[in-house]
Amino acid sequence: MHTFQKLLLVVTSLLLFAGCSRESRLEKALKKGEELLAAGKYAEAELEFKTAQQTPQPQPRALVGLGEVYLQQGRLDRASAFFSKAKELLPDNVDVRLKLGMCQLSLRQPAEARSAARFVLERRPADPEAPLLLADTSQNGPEVEESRAILKALPAPANEGAPALAGQAMLALKEKKFDEAEALLAKARAADPKYYANNSAQALLTSRGTSPKRPMPPCRRSSRRPPIE
To answer: 71 and 164 share a domain?
Structure first.
């Protein structure tokens, strides 16, 4: 009996060591993948995240990482697929829904993208990108009006923030209400002169010959990546 107990203890120790070793390799691959992704080394990051996926259970961080890799590479079908899988595991993760919505909009799935934008705004009213996603998904008059009502009804101070105002400016542009769009954009610039979308909206107004050219801050694409909760 004494020998059996010793053998059992050895086997248990070996199993625990193997488990810890697997977890260590998994964490190492995930961390390295995230570092490579942040450095813009997408092909190398993809390999690390795929390594992390070689486990019995799906790894949310790896799914999100692969989605971001493919999004940055413009491989939107694959990005959407991985963000969709991540959404199943992280249904309350706002950033995953936002990234998925962006992919869906580009893949001509406006209804799904619109649902994502509303999901984000309900949970994070001051999000800098969701108002623009909502505006972009407005395909007709009723949807434009609904989007405008949603942005105006955001809790303060989000309803008077640059993202909500820029989103309303984009809605006014859809209706060819150029003066209204210019006024809303002026308010957005006053609320946050550095807000990246001000530049895009101003470019649209200028291209239509409806607004004088102004020096604007350079347009910046968001580099936020979904945190894993």
So the answer is: no
Name the domain count of the chain.
2
Domain that holds residue 60: 17-90
Instruction: Look at residue 220 and tell me if it is in a domain.
Output: yes
pLDDT in tens, 69-91: 999 999 999 999 999 999 999 99
- Picking from 32, 56, 90, the residue at the C-terminal end of a domain is 90
Q: What is the CATH number of the domain that holds 199?
A: 1.25.40.10
Which of the listed residues 65, 90, 115 is the one where a domain comes to its end? 90
In angstroms, the CA 29 to CA 96 distance is 21
- The dihedral of CA 58, 61, 64, 66: what is its sign? negative
167, 151 in Cβ contact below 8 A? yes
pTM here is: 0.80
55 or 89, greater pLDDT: 89
The amino acid at residue 73 is Q
DSSP state of 158: G
Express each pLDDT in 138-180 by its tens digit: 999 999 999 999 999 999 999 999 999 999 999 999 999 999 9
211: helix, coil or strand? coil
- C-alpha distances (whole Å) from 163 to each of 29, 43, 52, 145, 200 are 36, 33, 36, 17, 12
